[in-house]
Amino acid sequence: MATLLTAEEFLSVPSDDGVRQELVRGEVRHVSAAGGAHGRVGANLYDALMPFVRSRRLGTCFFDGTGFLLPLPLALQRRSPDGAPRDTVRSPDVAFVRRARVPAGGFGPGWVPLAPDLAVEVLSPSETASDTQEKLADYRAAGTELLWVADPARRLVTVYASDAPTRWLREGEVLEGGAVVPGFALPVTALFEDVAREG
Fold this sequence. Notes:
Layout: H1 7-11, E1 19-24, E2 27-32, H2 36-55, E3 59-63, E4 68-69, E5 89-90, E6 94-98, E7 118-122, H3 129-142, E8 146-151, E9 156-161, E10 164-170, E11 174-176, E12 185-187, H4 188-191
Parallel strand pairs: 7-8
Antiparallel strand pairs: 1-2, 3-6, 4-5, 6-7, 8-9, 9-10, 11-12
């Protein structure tokens, strides 16, 4: 049986070389290191989003590897044997938090203690559809309003917004920040710049 950890205990867990980790209901999950296409898509988005957000003082952007301690409803937190809720720490590939939600004094050395307003996941060949759906469900349950899932193999972005139907964007279309990152727009073609086409 897997050892159950709290978010605080998870902070001190060493990471194996080339392997990222998340904490899901108290259980450590290993996530494969990002490949070239994955890293390039994440960097393309961050390079566009961060200066836009900073110049307008909209909030704070985070790059790959930042852990968010998600405030999941108790109904979604499986209980440990002693009855305590199990923590979940997710690490989106890119994230954004509105200025009004940045803690007084800024962010400390531990996990970010809230759900991002925008979370971006870039699909990897090793990630299963159920893994992705579980992540998305966690973000939404914790209060994330906007989710972008970028698929480098299909050059497709799926947009999940709390106030709109799911949308699928391809090259020739534009990814927009809506009410979460007002005014932000990035052509889908730019998101997949320097990413090799498959097939």
